[in-house]
Specification:
Order of helices and strands of chain B: HHHEEHHHHHHHHH
Strand order of the largest sheet of chain B: 1-2
Distance between the termini of chain B: 7 Å
Structural class of chain A: mainly alpha
Largest sheet of chain B: 2 strands, antiparallel
Number of strands of chain B: 2
CATH superfamily of the largest domain in chain B: MetI-like
Number of domains of chain B: 2
Largest sheet of chain A: 2 strands, antiparallel
Structural class of chain B: mainly alpha
Strand content of chain A: under 5%
CATH class of the largest domain in chain B: Mainly Alpha
Oligomer: heterodimer
Number of helices of chain B: 12
Number of strands of chain A: 2
Shape of chain B: flat
Number of helices of chain A: 13
Strand order of the largest sheet of chain A: 1-2
């Protein structure tokens, strides 16, 4: 799985040579088109993409059917009701509709997944690029740091950091909705505990790419370093970044679920798939619908993203067909 | 080789130092340990100052780190609060074998961890054996039937297992094998603790209580490992020496388990070596759900009270284990695969 740190890809040169399975008719297709073709043929990846799309439709359309006020509305006279026509997923210990809460929890879980991934990509690429491009002392300091963070088991680090930042940020207003500040805390924390792998890959690619002629040429023309880093080298190392980022969304959604499950993540009344499970194991026997549906949604989301990520890896890097 | 080992150990020292600094800095903001000390009534005013002084919490963070690292018995402290240092500290620091004292229980950290560690290791060790046996069997089976229906089912199953949050899997297992089995009148598995207090800590009891937590811990790893085994088995099975073995008429069973698997299981060594210490951590959620009295639960209980000496003890123990196992894995690898030479 970790063979993505291989030699750098140069999309501008690889047109038809590395795609024995795709016969092009007429003119040469761009490498991104070729990758797209390989992706579309990947059955698992397409299945994953379809499930993912359905899940997004579920949380988006669902928000038009149920209001957020309804999702947070407590009604103690109908607490812990089993699934029925009125409440297809049942109700929770304070009488809230579980279906509506999985929809709004889905907003939170999915946005945490994407934003935490963005944080980790920014940090990972930045550290990897600077370390790989400048080399020398900067490289060894940054890589020692990366290795140190890498060696702390991530769940421990996640718990400690969640506790470290907890209770700092008040409720935030965004798009006319108010979120618990813990959402932002969790995004930052997950982002800051998951960049190490990407940083290593990016560094390895920068190390080899910076010796290439096109970088030398750019340097001779007097292009500033930051431009070389961002506009010359970065596009050539996009493929592993895209794959890692996709799988990173799945990992971030899982991380959110773990931290919230332990009660250190997103704080109620804001729902997330993770915190809907927090404390629900008390009702293991009496109200299985409490934990079954949010958990199922997590599994489906993570599974489909993993399928898509797997397909992207095969599509973008035909040489890393390790399976 | 000896020089390589020595170099690796020397490299590990600054690494562990950086880890301890990062973790200690994070510890300092975990919450107020003093607030949890007085029971229902948190200490206030003069009491609070006195407690902070006695526990060394009034010192600046870098001094607290130094004391945690090398102890404070070389420095005079003011324990009475009159402004004049009057006694030497009593801590010797983790480098001299003193892991400190829990702020909450006032017991030595070493003792607390030592009490829980065997329970965690028992759970982890069993899970590791289950993982190796099942992932080898599944991986080899699906490699030999590449692209068959069985292989595709296993592949899908592996992806599902890999994508499942541990706690949800645990809840499902508990619901099926404890709740519903009980309902159906079948022998059901217990969901809480290590043994039934009414029966006592017998071998049978512990095994019986361990079944569900071990299953929970194993599934994700089996899903991942069996993929690696399948991939490396496919790679090996098409090599010349396997064809040679076949053409000289060796029984297929022997070729498979003696010749092919030996090389195909090399990646497994790396995986186990790198994951073994992580299993210590992986137990956090499982131990919580199944109320298993191990180190993960100790960690969670003391996170809530910001008891940094205990947390630092556990975290450093795990970090050291990670680093040591990395070195061990590399060394073992050279014995298993003589083509690899470190210089």
């Amino acid at each position: 799985m970790s063979s993505m740190a291989g030699p750098a890809r140069r999309p501008t040169l690889s047109t038809t040579t590395e795609s024995g399975d795709v016969q092009t008719k007429g003119g040469a297709l761009s490498p991104w088109r070729l990758a797209w073709r390989r992706f579309v043929r990947h059955r698992m990846a397409m299945a994953g993409a379809v499930i993912l799309l359905l899940l997004i439709v579920y949380v988006v359309v669902g928000a038009f059917i149920f209001s957020e006020a309804y999702a947070n509305q407590t009604a103690t006279f109908k607490r812990l009701q089993p699934p029925s026509w009125e409440h297809p997923f049942g109700t929770d210990p304070v009488g809230r509709d579980v279906l509506a809460r999985t929809i709004y929890g889905g907003h939170i879980s999915l946005s945490i997944g994407v934003s935490a991934m963005l944080v980790s990509v920014v940090v990972g690429v930045l550290i990897g690029a600077i370390a790989g491009y400048y080399g020398g002392a900067i490289d060894s300091i940054l890589m020692r740091f990366t290795e140190a963070v890498f060696n702390i088991p991530s769940l421990f680090l996640l718990i400690v950091m969640a506790k470290f930042f907890s209770g700092r940020i008040p409720t935030v207003e965004l798009f006319g909705r108010s979120f618990s500040g813990s959402v932002i805390v969790i995004i930052v924390v997950i982002g800051l505990t998951s960049w190490m792998y990407l940083a290593r890959i990016v560094r390895a690619n920068y190390l080899s790419l910076k010796e290439r002629e096109f970088v030398l040429a750019a340097r001779c023309l007097g292009v500033p370093n930051w431009r070389i880093i961002t506009f010359h080298i970065l596009p050539n190392t996009l493929a592993p970044i895209i794959v890692t980022a996709t799988l990173g969304v799945a990992a971030a959604i899982l991380s959110e679920a773990y931290v919230s499950f332990l009660g250190l993540g997103v704080q109620p009344p804001t729902a997330s798939w993770g915190n809907m499970l927090d404390g629900s194991y008390v009702y293991l026997e009496s109200a299985p619908w409490l934990w079954f549906f949010p958990g199922l949604l997590i599994v489906l989301t993570v599974l489909s993203i993993n399928f898509v990520g797997d397909g992207l890896r095969d599509a973008l890097d035909p040489r890393s067909l390790t399976k | 080789m000896t020089r390589y080992i020595i170099r690796r150990i020397l490299q590990a020292i600054p690494l562990l130092f950086i880890i301890s600094v990062i973790l200690f800095a994070l510890m300092m903001n975990m919450g107020d340990p003093l607030a949890t000390l007085g029971g229902r009534q948190p200490p206030r005013g003069e009491d609070r100052l006195r407690l902070a002084r006695q526990l060394g919490l009034d010192q600046p963070i870098y001094m607290q780190y130094v004391f945690w690292l090398i102890g404070n018995d070389w420095m005079m402290f003011d324990t009475t609060g009159d402004g004049a240092p009057n006694a030497y500290g009593t801590r010797r620091g983790i480098l001299r074998g003193d892991w400190g004292t829990s702020l909450v229980t006032r017991r030595p950290v070493v003792e607390m961890i030592w009490q829980r560690l065997p329970n965690t290791l028992l759970l982890m060790g069993t899970a590791q054996v289950v993982i190796i046996v099942f992932s080898l069997a599944i991986g080899v089976y699906s490699a030999l039937r590449q692209y068959s229906v069985a292989d595709n089912v296993i592949t899908t199953g592996a992806f599902i297992g890999y994508s499942m949050p541990i706690f949800w899997l645990a809840l499902m297992l508990m619901y099926i094998f404890a709740v519903n089995f009980k309902k159906w009148g079948l022998p059901y598995f217990p969901t809480v603790g290590m043994y039934d207090p009414a029966v006592g800590r017998t071998f049978g009891q512990v095994v019986w209580h361990m079944a569900l937590p071990v299953a929970t811990l194993s599934v994700t790893a089996i899903a991942a490992y069996s993929r690696y085994i399948r991939a490396s088995m496919l790679e090996v099975i098409n090599q010349d020496y396997i064809r040679t073995a076949r053409s000289k008429g060796l029984p297929e069973r022997l070729i498979l388990w003696r010749h092919a698997l030996k090389n195909a299981s090399l990646p497994l060594v790396t995986l186990i070596g790198l994951d073994l210490p992580l299993l210590l951590a992986g137990a956090v959620v499982t131990e919580r759900i199944f109320a298993w009295p191990g180190m993960g639960r100790l960690f969670l209980d003391h996170v809530e009270r910001a008891d940094y000496p205990v947390l630092m003890g556990i975290l450093m123990l795990v970090s050291v284990a990670v680093v040591v196992f990395q070195i061990l894995t590399d060394i073992v690898y050279t014995y298993l695969d003589p083509r690899i030479r470190y210089s």
